[in-house]
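hey all, quick one before standup. I had two proteins in the batch that finished overnight and I want to keep them in one place so we stop losing track of which output belongs to which input. First protein below, input sequence then structure tokens straight from the run.
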Amino acid sequence: MHLEIIFKDPNREKIFLSKTKTLCAVILSYHLLTWFTGCPFRFFFGISCPGCGMTRALLAALRLDFAAAFSYHPLFFLLPFFLLGYYLDPWINWSRHYLLLGSVAALFVLTYLVRLLFLHDPVVTWHPASGTLLKPFFHLLNIKLPG
């Protein structure tokens, strides 16, 4: 990718503004959704999602507390790269980067599984009986799980 392509694109301001509006709408929607329930994935299923702790990690990194950021989510340092990729998306040929994207996705899943199964991480938890959607099934089947 050549940077002069981006800087010479007459639509770059429109694209940047459109992507910024979309990003702000997503952030606002996320905060409105999580205001009362916390993490929606954990609320509905009782299980932490692979991105659990990422918001807290980002806030800790913005305070320059990188040790806390790493403890919340070890892959927090990838967020600026995702943001950069989001803004440069119209000029990136993603078909050439499938291996990289697949590797990052696999790294997220591997990190999630290690945190969930082996580290007893307080951020990543497993309590399916407390999930709003799963609670009726556990009650109906009379299954008792810790949590």
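OK second protein, same deal, sequence then tokens:
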Amino acid sequence: MTPSTNPTSTNPTSTNPTSPARTPGTTATSTSRKSTSRTGTPRKRNERSRPASLGLHAALAVAAVVAVFPPLWLLVTSFKPKNDAFSTSIVTHFTLANYTHVLADTEFLTWFENSVIVVGLTTVLGVFIAATTGYAVSRFRFPGMRPLMWLLLITQMFPVAVLIVPLYNLLASLGLLNQPAGLVITYLTIAVPFCAWMMKGYFDTIPVEIDESGRVDGLNPFGTFWRLVLPLARPGLAVTGFYTFVTAWAEVAYASAFMTGEENLTLAGGLQTFVNQYTNDWGSMTAAAVIIAVPAALVFAFAQRHLVAGLTAGTTKG
């Protein structure tokens, strides 16, 4: 008789039914888990490494210091005595003498009044002209529209130094030298072309159906623009107004060339009387610069909530 054999024990391919079955992916999964535990959590896509992140933050910190240091040192110098203007130490003898001298012993308040008149007229007229021009180019098709837009761009390509002499001769022939009106017209030639392009891009984002509903209600084109479209363009108007304001408030070349005499100067031109070939009053100049920066900061704080939306819409449409 042949001995009986158990097929389960003799078959090499047989498995114990009580032992857990292995699947093909078990080995790979356990291996990946081990590698993950050894190397840590894998980086996500587009995630910076630690050295890259440290380098980026270091570069941003250096850039922030470079940007903040000049105005901060200007503020510090304005509180120093005149003899300590060039000292590298922080304020050791705090004084308000520079501010008192600027406000009481100079024509600073007259310069401030002249600047407010020029900047106010430039801002109001610049925003109105740029808004109407941008709306007309955005909504209407007329002969010469494209050449007009190209002309607005070309006027931005000329440097200020090239335009001073022609503008000076033109203003002299019109009797507008030493007149706020002459300076306002000059500043409009700078602000309006850029702002018209920007407003055109913003009006492109406003649906044309709004204009059509205004015409159905009996409004003429200007009434549609003034009552329906303009209120929706507040972010673009804020950017236009801020740019026009800064252009007129901080401009130096035209103000120095077209306005002479201390009683006719604006703030930008008046600063040059503190430091020139005859005198070096750095304390008074820094104090005046700090005072001049305050209105610009207030205007920026007022308009900043509209700046991002206005700049984005005005530069992505065209």
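Flagging for whoever picks this up: The chain has a mean pLDDT of 82. The CA atoms of residues 178 and 185 lie 13 Å apart.
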